[in-house]
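Design job #97: recover the sequence.
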């Protein structure tokens, strides 16, 4: 699956050749529903054609622009491999689509830029996490969010405990329990039950191996504030914690052999561990907004927030799901104009604020209308 990343977002934002047409639709991942998924896109295609006609485009121009959609509709293999949602973007010379683990409301938008706000839940920095699975046959690192999870390349790290330690039955040779930390380093120590130098060598080998894993995964982690969840048999956890230097390693983990779990099940179990952390971050941001409103460090004024987002001033932005505010920003981002209806020349200002905040390293929270501060459609906490 092609991941929707910050780089993808930046590229789509910088495509300035009009018109930009955005399609969002829910899709059923079951192959037997392929025809229904196609019908949804056909319906959105007709809506796009009508919107383009209303803005003055001729039939020949419309057919040329939207011809990649016809090709996609006729691709049987494509429709037999779906996830929960499909996002499609087309403009003169540009055609991209993303099968995503996020269900969308059906929507077609025609404008001067692509409409990207429905994808914000995939990009919310405070809801990214990492999952490290430790098993005899495979070491894997995943990056995840509430909607998706995907593996990261671990080049340079031994692929399995067996490869690193050169024995076949780890569980039979390792039997130990954990005791309370000694000293002030805050790390758990492992107390082995077993006899002989072989056991001590096994622990040393494991610890040495986990030091390599720890170093290797930190080179792959691009969201240094994201929590890291361990999955594996419980006797490996204290040794890995002794080797760990990543500050966001979560205390709770997923116990058991991860090789026996599907990726979907691993995702569900990881979410059960990190969800309280995510909710805590959201509640903390909302509490910060409530404390700072009226001080100049927080606002519900759309114009102020949009301009601040372009200048990297926003620490956290809250965007109401499913709401729009049409307008445009001048070239040097010093003025905002508002309009009643969407046109090929304007944009959804809520969409712009969310995108620019994310690109400038701020946190984006897409909330239902009743969760928004003061019932607003847009709110923000400023860095300064």
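Job complete. Output follows.
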């Amino acid at each position: 699956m092609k991941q929707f990343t910050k780089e993808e977002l930046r590229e789509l934002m910088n495509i300035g050749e009009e018109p930009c047409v955005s399609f969002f639709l829910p899709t059923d991942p079951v192959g037997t529903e392929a025809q229904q998924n196609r019908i949804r896109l056909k319906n959105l295609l007709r809506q796009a054609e009508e919107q383009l006609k209303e803005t003055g485009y001729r039939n020949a121009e419309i057919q040329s622009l939207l011809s990649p959609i016809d090709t996609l509709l006729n691709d049987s293999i494509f429709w037999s491999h779906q996830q929960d949602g499909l996002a499609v973007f087309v403009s003169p010379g540009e055609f991209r689509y993303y099968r995503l683990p996020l269900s969308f409301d059906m929507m077609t938008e025609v404008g001067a830029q692509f409409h990207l706000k429905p994808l914000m839940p995939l990009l919310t920095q405070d809801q990214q996490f990492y999952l490290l699975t430790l098993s005899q046959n495979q070491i894997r690192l995943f990056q995840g969010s509430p909607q998706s999870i995907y593996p990261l390349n671990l080049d340079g790290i031994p692929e399995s405990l067996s490869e690193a330690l050169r024995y076949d039955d780890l569980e039979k040779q390792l039997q130990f329990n954990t005791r309370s930390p000694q000293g002030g380093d805050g790390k758990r120590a492992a107390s082995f039950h077993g006899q002989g130098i072989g056991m001590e060598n096994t622990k040393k080998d494991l610890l040495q191996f986990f030091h390599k894993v720890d170093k290797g995964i930190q080179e792959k982690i691009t969201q240094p504030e994201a929590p890291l969840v361990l999955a594996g048999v419980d006797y490996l956890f204290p040794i890995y914690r002794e080797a760990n230097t990543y500050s966001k390693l979560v205390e709770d983990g997923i116990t058991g052999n991860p090789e026996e779990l599907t990726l979907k099940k691993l995702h569900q179990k990881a979410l059960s561990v990190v969800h309280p952390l995510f909710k805590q971050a959201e509640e903390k941001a909302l509490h910060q907004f409530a404390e700072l409103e009226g001080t100049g460090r927080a606002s519900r004024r759309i114009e102020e927030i949009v301009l601040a987002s372009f200048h990297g001033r926003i620490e956290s932005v809250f965007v109401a799901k499913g709401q729009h505010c049409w307008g445009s920003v001048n070239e040097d981002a010093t003025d905002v104009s508002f309009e009643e209806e969407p046109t090929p020349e304007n944009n959804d200002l809520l969409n712009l604020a969310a995108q620019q905040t994310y690109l400038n390293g701020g946190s984006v929270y897409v909330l239902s209308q009743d969760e928004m501060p003061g019932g607003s459609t847009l709110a923000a906490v400023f860095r300064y």
